[in-house]
Design brief:
Length: 189
Amino acid sequence: MDLTIRIATVADIPALNGLIEASVRGLQASDYSPAQLDAALGSVFGVDRQLIADETYFIAERDGRLLGCGGWSRRRTLFGADAVADRDDSVLTPAVDAARIRAFFVHPDAARQGVGAAILSACEAAATKAGFTALELGATLTGLPFYRRYGYEPIERRDAPLPRGESLAIVAMRKVVSANAPAPVPEPT
């Protein structure tokens, strides 16, 4: 697979913006309307600079080409880009709270090739190393089967408000992990 997983930097933001738009338009069109996707880009779907500042946002590359991104967070915000109005960047307590799995996007040309699984494995390992024993995320309808495959269970469905009166269905999910558990093994493709 020859994937390189590394921490995203501020210099990556322009490329991340392009990847996110390609991912959203290429992979989520069967689950959301064009109006929902347009409204979600830049609000729910977009770069979260706090993840980059915290050095918890990963990039997957092959031969220098950006194929995917995703991160984990020790902060309360469950999903959304910088522009989300009700962000809560207060710090979670590992012994009490679940770390957040955040902002996963894979380029359509790299879908179902283990990119998301490699990033998820890196996130789970880092969050576990930081002392978290549970993980939560806000999955899109498109991402729901992927996260289920790696042991995340749905908690509740929410409608995230979007600009122009639109909303986006998001499924809150949770997984309990152990500090001694091995990282998830990607399914063969």
